[in-house]
Amino acid sequence: MNILVAGFQHETNTFAPTMAAYENFVNGEDFPGLARGQDIFNLLSVNIPVSGFIQHVQKRGHTVTPVIWAGAGASAHVTKDAYERICGEIIDAVKSETYDAIYLDLHGAMVAQHIDDGEGELLARVRAVVGPDMKVMVSVDSHANVTQLLLSLASGVVAYRTYPHVDMADTGRRAGELLLALMDSDKPAHLVAKRVPFLIPVNSMSTMLQPARGLYGLLEGLEKTDVLSLSFAPGFPASDFPECGPMVWGYGFDEARIEKAVATLFARVCSPEEQWSVQFEEPDAAVARAMQIARIATRPVIIADTQDNPGVGGDSNTMGMLRALLKAGAQDAAIGLIRDPSAAAAAHKAGVGAKIEISLGGCPQIGDEPFRGTFEVEALSDGKFVFGGPMMNGKHADMGPMARLRIDGVRIAVSTQKAQLLDRNMYRTVGIEPAEMKILVNKSSVHFRADFAAIAEEILVARAPGPFIADPSQLPWKRLGAGMRTRPNGPIFVPGQSEPAHDVYATLKAMGIELAKPSAPAASYVPYSRDGNVLYLSGHLSRHANGEVRAGRLGESVQTEEGIQAARAAAIDLMATLQAATGDLNKVVKILKVTSMVASSPEFTSQHLVTNGASELLAQVFGPRGMHARSAFGVAQLPLGACVEIELVALVEPAV
Length: 656
Known about the structure:
The chain has helices spanning 22-27, 49-59, 80-96, 118-130, 148-153, 168-184, 212-222, 255-270, 283-294, 320-328, 341-350, 424-428, 449-452, 504-511, 560-582, 607-622; strands at 2-9, 35-36, 63-71, 101-106, 135-140, 156-159, 190-195, 229-233, 247-252, 301-305, 333-339, 355-360, 371-381, 384-386, 396-398, 402-407, 410-415, 439-442, 458-462, 528-531, 534-541, 588-599, 629-635, 644-652.
């Protein structure tokens, strides 16, 4: 059997500032550069799906006709010119070549200037040529926004199972297995698919962490129950079109078994929704915490600058984290990559040892100003290297002229081309040895973990301003599917509304939270007082469900995660008091201020993270109305030995 093979990959953030032109695919950026025909065989040592597919089917005695493989780093829409040129080459080959089946290595989250569903449109054009009977196999990224059109036109679709994507080649192999199984069978496979009704933040999708790690373990177990193939794509929550969102799907010859497997996996994805919530640090807090940990650490603390990650649509040029490092006086710190062709050129012109005064980086589309300063040129490079980490192992890269600049205690890896910082060799190209740094700031969300987790003392995720909004509920959606929740347990998107409709009780029900009778005051005071439209709630001690106080001190008998849960419990009790005071939580106009007191040992300094347990719950339950000002204090002791006490101020509708 001969199989026509092609690849076309792009992850589209429709809110990002920069589109993907044809030249971006030629360069490849995070991917290998565009390859045609026999040159695709040069990619067989690279961890991408097409390499795994080709090697698998060749071992089974089949041949392939390679057409084109093109990928570009995540950005805004693919230009019409780029889409039509690459798609056109694929369709021309479909019309002219001789073959028995087709394999397409796609991403699944491509949006072009003129087409919402880039992959679905490509499949439609393929089917228009080959008809309904030709087997067309597709592999997609786990960030795919899998559409009904794609599923209806492909003979089979399989997705990555790791993030960082260390299994790309293995996904190609599984696509080959499924294609051959379908070709060998005289009966059709049944497709079952279920759309998850909420968007999942990118940072919570990592399969190196829970819940994703356990969920994919369940998937692989279910696949052994006479199921041909099972997939879960958490989606890419930054593509504003009606079918953006997670999907569970699978194929099997036994319809009942595949329906049961998909239903089981779907239920595990959806319950509890809060398992997909993620905590972020603000830039200054992230640096302060990193510096504290680094004082006694033997390995670097890594901060993910997630909102300027080129892998999700950033341009790798924002200055928020650099400013935070310098403001805090961080030493032995490195940040990369900063894409600034002018800065790289200035460094190469001046030479090693020179000092240059330049404006570095900056993203004007989001109001991020360049950083003006005097930098020492410590090293120069041609930007050519080979990836050594597990994700893109063996891929040759050319970042253009690069430089290592230094200002105060911070080293900066500056590049000419844009790429996500996901491999230690990207730092080494300019002479920075990552393991020798105290603090590393990587412009990445999750992929860096594949190569950096082994050397990290701790990993923090910072939310510095950037083109990629890490919390999808904060994006200005206009075309999302009706009824989709914009984050786990979040507000429901309603087309035409400037903000999603948000019913507090519907959210509480979806989260499985029942408000009990509020706790009675522990001394001579009232639970709340009202002045006009402002409600002042007294401090609420954190309690267990049976009413007993959650006792202990953070940094001693209570762990940080337990403290977070204690703050969450106090917030639930506060909402019960709010309900008693207003009669209807939907009458809360705004949570104005939260004050948190955390019983702490002298060494414990993560009171802000503990308090996030309350803050994030209030934001989830009340939506934008729940975003508030806040203070968090560490105290030596609280009443009744409680570990957390929280008070709250809210603006409410006028009393009738």
